[in-house]
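Dear support,

Our group has been running a series of protein-ligand predictions, and this particular one with nicotinamide-adenine-dinucleotide is the one our PI (initials K.S.) wants archived with full inputs and outputs. We had some confusion internally about which version of the output was final, so please treat the block below as the authoritative record. The input we submitted was:
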Amino acid sequence: MKTPVEIVVTGAAGHISYSLLFRLAAGELLGLDQPIVLRLLEITPALNTLAGVVMELNDCAYPLLHKIIVTDDPEVAFQGVEYAFLVGAKPRQQGMLRSDLLEQNAAIFAAQGRVINQVANPKVKVLVTGNPANTNALIAIKNAPDLPANCFSSMAMLDHTRAISQLALKCEEPVTAIKNVIIWGNHSCTQYPDLHHAKVNDSEALSLVEHDWYIDQFIPTVQYRGTEVIKARGQSSAASAAHAAIQHMRTLVYGTAPGTWVSMGVASDGSYGVPEGLVFSFPVTIQDGQISIVQGLELNEFSLEKLRINQEELIEERQAIKHLL
Ligand code: NAD
Ligand code: LMR
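Confirmed final output from the archive:
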């Protein structure tokens, strides 16, 4: 039997985790021959609820679920972990922007960044899902000075798959026909879903759809999808977010297929003029666990302006939490 792999999920009693944990336990991240240990972190008042989730996990008798560790102590939760899903954070309610969460959530990521730095496996892959995800990832990176910044990434995968799905619906093609959409920038309503490099069955996506649809429908639909889900459900996306988290981490593990990329929030290396260090969603390829920002894509004036707006917003967010960096 393989040695179990240690995975931590924070916010384990929350809505996203209620989907995520069961899929991890079923082997969807590392495959059907890889046992795992689930280390579940919650705040003390949520431990009762978490006990119920653990009962359900046990009731499934998952063959791959070697052990479950439940704790409200980050030092226990992050001990030796190879994969960290940072989900635990307040979600927004109707009428809020994700950046409205910054004040409430930022401190969580400073504290957890420090503990990850001390006790996690030095090769840990950390995915920040809790909002505002890009700036929370920046905070975690800055509080984990001994780990390379590329151990951390923030989730743009849900936006990425939202974009694929909208384009596939419009073109009446299966989602598998779509490749190389890009989400640039912040996981906020200013994010830029870019179709200039996307393909539908090897045809240029923008040659198949009307320009007005791209500008007036596609872009805002993807940008405001989270808001619309909250309006409809009364709470933010959960199952789709859990799916995106697994897809994101799987891509880090298994890499991107040749000629394709995904969108991820990563610390900028200055590519496309984005200030170094800012956690910005780029098109990235992954080979042997290494994340590379796709280079050399041509950006027209429209796209450059969208990138600039995202940079400004992320710089403002960084300014608001500069005491935590
Ligand atoms: P939720 O309120 O249902 O669950 C969050 C859980 O985190 C709660 O159980 C809470 O007790 C716990 N928590 C709070 N502080 C914690 C801490 N310091 N340590 C450990 N756990 C802590 O929320 P949810 O619907 O699961 O969403 C979680 C986060 O994910 C929110 O910030 C939401 O906005 C975000 N989100 C991001 C994306 C994305 O695409 N990046 C998508 C959906 C949701
Ligand atoms: C989403 O995109 O669905 C999440 O970030 C939740 C939200 O606040 O919109």
